[in-house]
UniProtKB/TrEMBL annotation:
Stated name of the protein: DNA polymerase
InterPro entries (UniProt xref): BRCT_dom (IPR001357), BRCT_dom_sf (IPR036420), DNA-dir_DNA_pol_X (IPR002054), DNA_pol-X_BS (IPR019843), DNA_pol_B_palm_palm (IPR028207), DNA_pol_lambd_fingers_domain (IPR018944), DNA_pol_lamdba_lyase_dom_sf (IPR027421), DNA_Pol_thumb_sf (IPR037160)
DNA damage in keyword set: yes
Reaction catalysed by this enzyme: DNA(n) + a 2'-deoxyribonucleoside 5'-triphosphate = DNA(n+1) + diphosphate
Region (Disordered): 1-21, 123-200
Amino acid sequence: MAPKRATTPKKRLTSAVDQESVGDGGGGGGLFHGLIFFLVDIGVQPRRLQIWKQKLVQMEGTVEDQFSKRVTHILAMSSKALLEKVCKESLMPFKGSVLLYQWLEESLKLGEKVSEELYSLKTEAEGDNESPKSIDRVRNKSEGSQSDDNESPRDKKARHSPEHASVSPAVSNESHGVKTRDGTNNSGGDSNKDVSLPYAPPDLNRNITEIFGKLINIYRALGEDRRSFSYYKAIPVIEKLPFKIESVDQVKHLPTIGKSMQDHIHEIVTTGKLSKLEHFETDEKVFYRFLEELFTVTVRTINLFGEVWGIGPATALKLYEKGHRTLNDLKNEDSLTHSQRVGLEYFEDIKKRIPRKEVQDMEHLLQKAGEEVLPGVRDNCSDASQVSVVCGGSFRRGKATCGDMDIVITHPDGTSHKGFLAKYVKHLKDLNFLREDLIFSTHSLEGTDSGVDTYFGLCTYPGRETRHRIDLKVYPRDIYAFGLIAWTGNDVLNRRLRIIAESKGYRLDDTGLFLATHGSDGKKGARATKSLSLNTEKEVFDFLGFPWLEPHERNL
DNA sequence: GTACCGGTGCG
DNA sequence: CGCACC
DNA sequence: GTAC
């Protein structure tokens, strides 16, 4: 039954922090006496934020939860984060200081307020006289973290392929809602302004992130997911830095960068390489004394096997131990599942990236095919009802090439989606568009589960034979917004949204937003609790109190 | 010392 | 169940 | 490998 109506989340940021003033060994003193801070929480780990607030208050500063005239200092992780929180207009008349958090860190470290010069985010009076050296450098960062592909380190077989064509400015923005025949957006409608900003991925420090990227793969191949994940988290942190790292001191206090990574960074900036990585790449044995016995292995082979769709670290290792050494060997292996066989057969194809243009063509093809399977309400009625087919994933985020296609489907009438996928897949096979199946699951018919139907498979661009990975997801209209968000990503954003939801007492996933029922409610069978009803992406963002991001702004 | 991102299909 | 995937 |  109707779960308690959720009260809208409070807009307040975390309130004044527990003032349990910590002892603080030496008289921290009133370093920040008289200063009034507004902290932009975007892109800051909550824990970190909390610590900073605490410090500021300890040292007699004041922290405001809202941006106001009283504020003398704004601190932000980046200019982008800043603008998400404070609009440019209100910033212009602002006379105080706008600084990077690093200013605070340095000040805390040295025990005195360091010069604001180097940390200013202020864009001078606007218009003509641009800021001095202040910062144009900061303007574009965090934008193009070229975590090219899509998602987590887990998935997507970490193909480190180049998509470095930067971001295509021509972001097809589609609509966030359900497309209706006559082109009106019957839902997602959000701000339609298509701001094609001048992207310019900063990417100083590529020297470091590239090496860390390799370590991610290596550790994953060794089954050390945790460690791998640590590097994964560190990369975006480093990427966002507005300067090129030349000394370890500059990264000493960054989150996710601890002792070891500092050492690594030190070695990289001084010698240009990382001996640890060299070892991994050349020797192939030795390191991991404790694993040595088990893995008398070449990391490469395991890595390679693991790149086959359907084969993960465990299976890759098994296959290696069975004596296989090449992909060709695997073809004779009986134990492979159907999916793995398909993944193996089209190994090279699947790795190829798809040009944006082609994805767009295929999106149209898919939309058309959808309408053929499920003809919409004709007639003149303005409210035509038509199946909606949107390509999410990196495509929707505006990337120039895509590793695969994530198709999110729904129907405005709220019922016609049922049973649609099966017919749709059949039709697409008749069109010779879908070529091989990987996974096919349907729930909409039984009404069990949340009613999402899913298909994973391979498709081809009309007239060609190259296989591309494609996912089709059919959502009931009422939870469509959640599916669209989840499948548009990126994963960093998804996780941030989830965490925010949790902090507000909810659980968020691609099938909805639920009151965090504690423990009891099993989720099998018909869900006991229904998702809160939010019709558009915008509504979800708003509900969570997260600043709206256009799809192409979601490459966090 | 220990947790770290979560949920689902397949075999 | 464990493995793989998103 | 990092943070609690």
